[in-house]
Amino acid sequence: MEPLLSVNNLEVIYDKVFLAVKGISLEVPQGSIVTLLGANGAGKSTTLKAISGLLGPERGEVTRGVVRFAGRPLDRLPSPRRVALGIAQVLEGRRVFEHLTPEENLLAASTMHRDGAHVRSLIDRIYGYFPRLAERRSTRAGYLSGGEQQMLAIGRALMAEPRLLLLDEPSLGLAPRLVQEIFDIVRRINQEEGVTILLVEQNARAALAIASHGYLMENGRIVMAGPARTLRENPDVREFYLGGG
Ligand code: ATP
């Protein structure tokens, strides 16, 4: 069966000259969690943006290669059309509307739905995954903790009822206990909602614990790929990405 997402020979050039992604290929099977690992600046966020259509040729951000989703090439399809097809991205750095409450943030992300009852049931389902957001539904998002804002950012993406969720470093800046909590919820969203997940992370340990497959990126290239278990046991991955041991 064709994977839900496949990326073939993707290249991304910034400012007409800087090759940030140098011909990578990867696959994300329907229903899976796949992780894209690598250090700061390896090209992971750029790869996600190429998939969600957030790169701008008008800004000299040139993309080459083929991205296929649900059986069709995405070509130059603009980002809102990709969202409509079922691709949602949670950007790095938990972008939420800080002056709005969680409830208002979720409502603001619901414009694709016309049925108010459906919107309500989606929001309640999201509160079910993130009870803390429900508790703080009337507090301005700017006053939420980093972990709560990350939860809200994921909730906003879920409002689009995506088939594929692109998550960019959900663990960034969070205490270990919260990282664990968020990753547990990501796993539940995958299992209970059937959402396929491509997870970009620097925290290789946490990501490989929930992913079935992983790709390791260095300097714009994929240097290693395989089942999560194989990567966890690889001596180089252990030394450089799992902090030794
Ligand atoms: P991070 O964890 O910091 O997001 P990353 O692996 O996601 O790292 P990218 O953000 O994709 O890496 O960056 C890859 C390379 O492209 C880096 O060298 C970065 O400096 C460069 N880059 C990223 N965005 C731009 C941009 N808008 N214009 C020019 N260069 C960029």
From TrEMBL:
InterPro entries in the record: AAA+_ATPase, ABC_transporter-like_ATP-bd, ABC_transporter-like_CS, BCAA_Transport_ATP-bd_LivF, P-loop_NTPase
Pfam families, A to Z: ABC_tran
Keywords for the protein's UniProt record, in alphabetical order: Amino-acid transport, ATP-binding, Nucleotide-binding, Transport
Protein name in UniProt: Branched-chain amino acid ABC transporter ATP-binding protein
Family: Belongs to the ABC transporter superfamily.
Species whose genome carries this gene: Limnochorda pilosa
Keyword ATP-binding tagged: yes
GO molecular function, one term: ATP hydrolysis activity
One GO-annotated biological process of the protein: L-amino acid transport
Segments forming domain ABC transporter: 5-244
